[in-house]
Design a protein that fits this description.
With 453 residues, the chain is α/β, with parallel strands linked by helices. It is built from 14 helices and 22 strands.
């Protein structure tokens, strides 16, 4: 029996193949998923990891044993799986471990319409059922066994994304795309086909062993190749995707990273324009002050949330928001079933850049207004004690306000910082922003001294 507490996380399943997650266990998860969702049909996709096809097929078999028809859509990005779930109105399962090393695999689950599945929305029930079946064995198959068929949705996915962004009038652009040997190598050619783009591909070969670099563009080490190639090619911009291609990171014509907050603000302005200058925009509490400012300037209503896709998606559904963005380069769209798609954000950037004559660095300057530290992680022996020490240092000051929506946020007239504990590692995560780079550095160093004392 596998200890499921080690692999069933807050929002997905993730573990080492085959020690923690193998075909037999995937089949049990498929059966439990069909039972908990009470689905008559599901859709299943997978990434390029060597173990993914067999795990996806086993999951489909398990669902079929419980009477659910399973459509295997094969190789896909996570947002392509969300598209299939949304457009077909079926629960879905995506086999991927995103940017984790090659020996890992996992399952991201959603209900019909790409609605998220997490601990409080079905994942705990699925885990409990799998644990029971591990102990007692599988029940007799359902009276009607479901079918397992294959289906290709890539062309429909690409067409849907293209229908949401007007790219008909853009000027020719040269764009370097780093797929990181992940699923963008599969989806980008279809999505960008026929546009006036000179696409320079990097690491498009699907290879779940990640031979060139980790497929996590938020780590600066993993975009060095892209930055160098953009400059060498004289390209207009560069795009980097993570392993399952649901996140997109942007660099400008100089190879400089464009902060995800600036992309959030840019896309928010465009989505508000698409909706007549009205609408709610969701942003997490670590995004820049620029985001709510730009939203308000364009007639929208900014709403601040906790960090994490479940909180963003829940708030989008509650408020009817048209768009949401996170500092981690996750971008959520009402017109994409409130799910996240980095590819759609990339199309917005291409449309914005191609719709005016200037370089990307000039275009994004309007959305990147403050000095930010980026996320700084500190390993600590006692998270609670160090966080308490930071709070104690600021709570008596009259020139700041404190809130605890997610960790500790301290806000002054010309700076703010947020300190959050990692749920999975002995880390405290610090983000600082200020109107002036020197002030940002001073606040950053002051707080780090307290954390690391």
């Amino acid at each position: 029996m596998v200890d499921l507490s080690q692999i069933v996380k807050a929002y997905d399943v993730r573990g080492v193949y085959p020690d923690q997650l193998d075909e037999q266990l995937a089949e049990l998860f498929g059966a439990a998923f069909a039972e908990v969702t009470e689905a008559s049909a599901i859709v299943v996709g997978h990434d390029m990891r060597p173990s993914s096809p067999a795990l996806a097929a086993a999951f489909a078999r398990g669902a079929a044993e419980r009477g659910a028809d399973a459509a295997l859509i094969g190789l896909c990005s996570t947002d392509e799986l969300y598209f299939a779930s949304g457009s077909l109105d079926l629960p879905g399962a995506m086999f991927t471990a995103s940017h984790n090393p090659a020996q890992y695999n996992g399952i991201k689950l959603c209900r019909a319409g790409a609605a998220p599945v997490g601990q409080d929305t079905g994942l705990a029930d699925i885990r409990a059922l799998v644990e029971r079946r591990q102990a007692e064995g599988a029940p007799a198959p359902a009276e009607r066994r479901g079918t397992v068929t294959e289906r290709d949705v890539l062309a429909d996915y690409a067409a849907h994304l293209r229908s949401l962004v007007d790219l008909t009038e853009i000027r020719p652009l040269k764009v370097v795309v780093d797929a990181g040997n992940g699923m963008a190598g599969h989806t980008v050619p279809s999505v960008l086909a026929g546009l006036p783009l000179d696409v320079v591909p990097m690491y498009f070969e699907l290879d779940g062993t990640f031979p060139n670099h980790e497929a996590n563009p938020l780590d600066p080490a993993n975009i060095v190749d892209l930055q160098e190639r953009v400059r060498a090619e004289g390209a207009d911009l560069g795009l980097a995707f993570d392993g399952d291609a649901d996140r997109c990171f942007v660099v400008d014509e100089q190879g400089a990273p464009v902060p995800p907050s600036a992309i959030t603000a840019l896309v928010a302005a465009r989505e508000l324009a698409r909706n007549g200058g009205k609408g709610t925009i969701i942003h997490n509490l670590i995004t820049s002050w620029s985001v709510p400012e730009v939203v308000a300037e364009h007639g929208g209503t900014p709403v601040r949330t906790r960090v994490g896709h479940s909180f963003i998606k829940e708030e989008m559904a509650r408020s009817g928001a048209i768009f949401g963005g996170e500092h981690s380069a996750h971008y959520y769209f009402r017109d994409f079933w409130n799910a996240d798609t980095g590819m759609l954000a990339a199309l917005h950037v291409l449309a914005a850049l191609g719709g005016q004559p200037g370089p990307l660095s000039h275009l994004t300057a309007a959305y990147d207004r403050y000095a930010a530290s980026g996320e700084i992680n500190s390993t600590v022996a006692d998270q609670a004690a160090r966080a308490a020490a930071v709070r104690e240092a600021y709570e008596s000051r009259e020139d700041v306000t404190l809130d605890t929506l997610d960790g500790l946020t301290v806000t002054a007239a010309d700076w703010w910082f947020n300190l959050r504990a990692s749920n999975t590692e002995p880390l405290l995560r610090l983000n600082v922003e200020a109107r002036d780079p020197a002030v940002m550095a001073a606040v950053r160093d002051e707080v780090l001294a307290l954390i690391r004392a």
